[in-house]
Each structure stands twice: as C-alpha cells, then as structure tokens.
Design brief:
The complex is a heterodimer. Chain A is of the alpha+beta class. Chain A contains 3 helices and 12 strands. In chain A, the strands form 2 sheets. Chain A has a 6-stranded antiparallel barrel with strand order 1-2-5-4-3-12. The longest helix of chain A is centred in the N-terminal third of the chain and has 39 residues. In chain B, α2 crosses α4 and α5 packs antiparallel against α6. The chains are: A alpha+beta, B mainly alpha.
Chain lengths: 257, 154
Amino acid sequence: MDKEIRSSFFFPLLLSILLLFSDRTGLLAPPRAFLERLCSPLQFALYSLGKKIKSPLGSLFRLSVLEEENRKLEEELALALSKLAELKRLKKENEVLRKQLGVFQDDNWEMIPALVLGRDRFLKINRGKRGGVREGMVVVRENVFLGRIVKVTDFASLVQLVLDPNFKILARTEKGTKGIVVGSYQSGLLLTKVLTDAPLSSGDLVYARNQEGMPPNLLLGRIKKVFGGESQLFWEAEVEPIFDFSDLEVVFIAFPK
Amino acid sequence: MSAKFCFWYLLLFAFILEKSIGGTYFVFSFLLSWFSQRREGGIFKVTFFVGLLLDLFSQSSFGAHSLFFLLSFLFFSYLTQRMSLFFALLPTIFLFTGVYESYILFFQGGEIVPSFDFFQGLVGLVFGVFFFRLISFLKERIILQEPLQLQFGL
C-alpha cells in the first residue's frame, strides 16, 4: 500500500480494535441498545425487500420442481377437502366438549409475536431482554417448532433454527415412534436413532417430545423419505419442515404464564 | 449512471442479500472487489462504517467486522504483489471466511459448523468473483477515472 493510503488505513483499523475491546467489557451496551432500536425498521425493510427479490428469481430456477410440487399439491388438496368436512364436524364437537370441561388451549403458555429482522446462521428477531426474552425460550409459528433463543440483547434476539446442524431435539412420530431430530442444511431435518422395529413411513408427522420449558405437542415436520434397512441398527428419515424458513416474517416466542 | 450511484446501489444490493440469505460475505466480497479496483483512502472509511452496521445487524462485538475487513484488505494487498488481482481475491475471501467464522465461534460463543462455514465461504467466493467482474466492467465502461474520495464525497 502507498504511504498516504497507509495512514488512512491504520486509523479505522485501530479504532476497530479499540471498539472491539470496549464492547467486550460492556462499555458499549447503552449505545448498542439505542442503535438496535433505531436500526430495527431498516433491518426489517432490507429483509423483506430481499425476500421479494429472491422469490421470483428462485422460481425461475425451480420450474420443473414447481411442476412436480403442483401435482402433489393438487392431490393433497383433494384429500384435504374431504378431511375438512370431517374436521368441521369434529371442531364443533370439540368446542362443545371444551366448554363442558372448562379446558382452554395454551393455558400455561402465552405466545408473544416478534418480527424477523434477518437471517444468517441464526434468525434475528426484534424482541430482547427488555421484552422478557431469555436464552433457551422456544420460538414457534402456529403449532410448529422453529427453534430456540440462543442469544439475547436488549432489543433483539438470535434464534437457533431446527435446521442448524448443531440443533438436536427428542422427537416422536404420530405413531409414537421415538428418535432424535437433528438439523441439516442440506436436507432440512433428519430423524435419527429410530429402532428398526418401530413403525416409520413417509408422510408421518413428527413432533417434539414433551419437555420442560416448552409447550406440548409442537410439530417439527413431515417424513419425506426413510433410509436404512434391516441390516442396520437404526432407521433414519428425512423430515420436511412445515414452513419455508426463508419466508418467515412473524414468529412467536412461548412465554410460560 | 454516476459512480456514486453505482457504488451505493451495489452496496445496498449486497446488504439486501446479507439480510435475506445470510453471511456477511456479500458485503465483504463487494467491498473487497471495490478495493481491488480503487485503492483510495475513502474506501477504508466506508468499510469501517459498513462493518459497524454489520456488527449491529449480526449482534457481534462492535469493531469485529471492520477489523476483519480491514485486515483482509492488508492480506489482499500483500497477495496482489505476487499474483493477479483476480487470483488474490479467492484466497482472501476464503481466509476471511475461516478467520472471521473462527472468531465468531470461539469468542462470541457457538460451535464449529463445517458444512455451514464451507457453504458460506463458497457463496462469498462466487459473489466476490461476480462483484469483481461487475466492478471491472463498470470501471471500464461507466465510471470515470476520478479518485474515489471525489466521487463519493468522502
């Protein structure tokens, strides 16, 4: 580098080092909290804009996949319509029973909404310590488990998604088959450690096993493909997430009441 | 189209990618590509402030992004004395990916996720090459040969 450039290079470099040490000692927490609040709308706007750009571009490259998906969806729609009529009847019945028993859903849990501000390895949301968020809290959308809070600052938090390769959770299928779901960037989710004598087939819904600190019966996904055979000790299955994780705008944090 | 417009428009594009797809590599590869074409002092100031913004966005310590960006520029300058600009770009992006991710993992908490880091490195590389070609093209066809400081009022 030339001499004059060198001088304009070292000032920001030294300033960066100084900031790094100051921040690690906690000196910059107040300005960070202020800036975080200030920048939240900008982050949300950039994230939303990115999704709008990504969506038509992605569709162009996925035409053949979309065609296949469309065919499957049509089949599923026909099935869903027949189930819908049955569900309506059951819903009515359920309402009557619930009133009678005096039981309400989510009695122990309150779902607090949060906006998604961006996605890196983690999902960033606009609620932090000041909103009562703590590490380890569960993040959901409807009854679908999305991940856990791993880092919290005053006005924002980072969520480790189920897709993260370091994420593991005890799971069970709708048929009661137990296993462990681990994240995988390549194939979505993997259901592992399933004993070969347990029933497991594609299309089965996979739930998180009820644990302390999380609402019961949260859905993880649906089994897409089963691997392994009788020669192996365990089955493995590819689990398709319910939501497109790149398309989330609002999520909910489960607060115990 | 003015140089000022090109610069900020592309930087915004890199930010949008960063927010929606993930990784700081879009922004980094853009700044590095720009630095490869124009080595004036103004780019360091831009890099410093852009780094701070990314620190804020990704909840990492203030100064972390700026520091690694600037150190990568230094490494890049060293490499360009020995090889062409284009070929110097590639190891710089991979080095940045490795060093920066290690920093994040070890000092900011977390565990090593090789598949994710490798993927991010590749993404950075692809976009680095893309930005390098784009900026080279813009430089030849559109952008005037004024110093960066004059063009961007830095």
